[in-house]
Write a structure and sequence with these properties.
Blueprint: E1 10-13, E2 19-22, E3 25-26, H1 35-45, E4 51-52, H2 53-60, H3 68-83, E5 96-99, E6 102-105, E7 110-112, H4 113-122, H5 126-132, H6 148-172, H7 175-188, H8 193-205, H9 209-227, H10 235-238
Parallel strand pairs: 1-7
Antiparallel strand pairs: 1-2, 2-3, 4-6, 5-6
Helix pairs in contact: 1-3, 2-3, 4-5, 5-6, 6-7, 7-8, 8-9
């Protein structure tokens, strides 16, 4: 009687630098920065959908047309070998599925922190969600156009959760908790004048003048260096 091999499961941490774990063992490494690893990240960004061969090719080799299909198939083969080293050559992959002429991540067999982050938000577990948000989605692919929409969407969800946390902590009288959440929000929105104005005013209202000055100076420098502008508010008016 044929022995049934358990279907593989993979944990992917995509909030922050990409980490992969299977059976308690780290799978990520230098290969994640090469084409097979970038292919996996593209499928993570497109999870729930099938990425066509052309879409994958354009994401990995922008502007390249000749031999794109063969290159995609080759790197899919390499990726499957990395993720499922015990898989027999003729067996269908349990993690990377071939569908409608393209490829998709089998989300039923992948545990993704970004999805858990959203589930936690939907059930009101805001603190749990913010723990999961280690950093920007696929932070090790800062210039990949295919990662930008999902990165921005999750970023906005995290910022909204932090704003909710600030308000909840203030309502509870938890000043340190409110300050920590507001400071984290300011870090995630480095050019948002309203957020930084609020944080600096918060510091001043609690007598933390040195911290307020440090934050105001850093924010002013950032605006000048990036946009050639000065803040629309001064420390004196916030007092």
């Amino acid at each position: 009687m044929r022995n049934e091999t358990p279907e593989p499961r993979l944990a992917i941490l995509a909030l922050g630098p990409t980490l992969l774990v299977r059976d308690g063992r780290r799978l990520d490494g230098p290969w994640c920065k090469r084409r097979p690893g970038r292919l996996l990240k593209l499928l993570v960004a497109r999870r729930g959908h099938t990425a066509s061969v052309d879409e994958i090719a354009e994401g990995l080799w922008p502007g390249a047309a000749y031999g794109a299909g063969a290159n995609v198939r080759y790197h899919v083969h390499v990726l499957r070998r990395v993720l499922e080293p015990g898989r027999e050559g003729g067996c269908e992959s349990s993690l990377i599925r071939c569908r409608d002429g393209g490829y998709a991540l089998d989300t039923a067999r992948v545990e993704l922190d970004a999805d858990e982050f959203e589930r936690a938000l939907s059930t009101g577990e805001t603190a749990r969600a913010l723990e999961l948000y280690r950093g920007e989605f696929l932070a090790d692919e800062p210039y990949a156009a295919w990662a930008h929409p999902e990165r921005q969407r999750l970023h906005e969800l995290a910022c909204a959760a932090l704003r909710q946390t600030v308000e909840a902590r203030l309502a509870e009288g938890d000043t340190p908790g409110a300050r920590a959440a507001l400071a984290r929000l300011a870090d995630m929105q480095p050019y948002d004048e309203d957020v930084h104005r609020e944080l600096i005013a918060f510091e001043l209202s609690r007598g933390r003048r040195s911290d307020a000055l440090r934050r105001y100076t850093a924010f002013s420098h950032r605006l000048r260096e990036t946009f050639g502008e000065e803040p629309a508010f001064g420390l004196a008016e916030l007092r």
